[in-house]
Amino acid sequence: MKIGILTSGGDCPGLNAVIRGAVIKGDSIYGHEFLGIKDGFKGLVLDKISKLPRKQVRGLAKQGGTILGTSRIGPFEHGGSERVKEVMAKHGMDAVIAIGGEGTLTVARMLHEDGIPIVGVPKTIDNDLSATDYTFGFDTAVSIATESIDRLRTTAESHHRCMVVEVMGRHVGWIALHAGLASGAHAVLIPEVPVTIEQIAGWVKATVTRGRAPVVCVAEGFTLKGDQDVVAKGGVDGMGRPRLGGIGEQLTPLIEELTGIETRCTTLGHLQRGGVPTAYDRVLATRFGIAAVDAVTKKKWGTMVALRGTDIQSVHLSDATHEVKSVPYARWEEAAILFG
């Protein structure tokens, strides 16, 4: 078979490990050929395609980013499914492996429904896909956020300041929850659990009373409970989804005003996407790549590889995209015991 591989949506540590795992197994075990599709679905409809031989993926497991490039441009703005079929036919492409998050896999599902042979691989630092226990990239993002908060705590203690640390996650709080717990943050604010600015100020004051410098870890999609107009505004991306970010800067003066404590904000932003993947993410991504080639070989079209417990399984793309995997309230409640 001749298989095209693309990476779409936000970049993420571990993408190259998926590509490497798929190409090596596909070449050595099945004798498949591979084509690299540049810049996601945009490259598929604009015919930015070249050969992807085994020698080109050597040593990729530890490399961050994606050698194929990525974009947030969907195919339906450039001819849709018919254009995809036309380009695939031109290159003799028998199937597509699409590596991406919720937006990418939704597009993959739509293409499958239009008769295109496609298999998905879940990628997102946000860990918000409902059909898999974890996605690669999440562990790396949490590790970077945790280390960053550890560093910020030392400067906060030195100056007796409150530090607000904004992390990614879109509309779920998995990164904030895990990084906040791991670093011992004194408050963790997530989109699933709105709280009032008075409650946040209470946690900050309680921390100061104990002689500590407060650290507030906030997910970019968090909003305050009540009538306060604290909403991140950043336009929309190429797939029409709102760009988030800025909630930390908006909370900082409110906390300082209510507590009288000097408060500073650090937004980690794309630091969480960059650099080399953790060992866990390298292993998971490689396993996903290997399993994706198996799924293509078995012609399991319209499916996605997923982690269930310690096993890699195939699930329907519709199962992965019908709802976002949110943080259960009980998980946040566990962390809240440690606040203040």
From TrEMBL:
GO terms for molecular function: 6-phosphofructokinase activity; AMP binding; ATP binding; diphosphate-fructose-6-phosphate 1-phosphotransferase activity; fructose-6-phosphate binding; identical protein binding; metal ion binding; monosaccharide binding. It is found in: Cytoplasm. One of its GO terms (biological process) is fructose 1,6-bisphosphate metabolic process. Keywords: ATP-binding, Cytoplasm, Glycolysis, Kinase, Magnesium, Metal-binding, Nucleotide-binding, Transferase. Substrate binds at residues 124-126, 161, 168-170, 220, 264, 270-273. Mg(2+) binds at residue 102. One of its GO terms (cellular component) is 6-phosphofructokinase complex. Its EC number is 2.7.1.11. It is an enzyme of class 2 (transferase). InterPro entries: ATP_PFK, ATP_PFK_prok-type, Phosphofructokinase_CS, Phosphofructokinase_dom, Phosphofructokinase_III, PKF_sf. Its main location: cytoplasm. The active site is at residue 126. It comes from the Bacteria. The record marks 103 as: Important for substrate specificity. Pathway: Carbohydrate degradation; glycolysis; D-glyceraldehyde 3-phosphate and glycerone phosphate from D-glucose: step 3/4. HAMAP family: Phosphofructokinase_III. Catalyzes the phosphorylation of D-fructose 6-phosphate to fructose 1,6-bisphosphate by ATP, the first committing step of glycolysis. PANTHER family: ATP-DEPENDENT 6-PHOSPHOFRUCTOKINASE 3 (PTHR13697:SF52), PHOSPHOFRUCTOKINASE (PTHR13697). This is ATP-dependent 6-phosphofructokinase. It comes from Ornithinicoccus hortensis. The gene is pfkA.
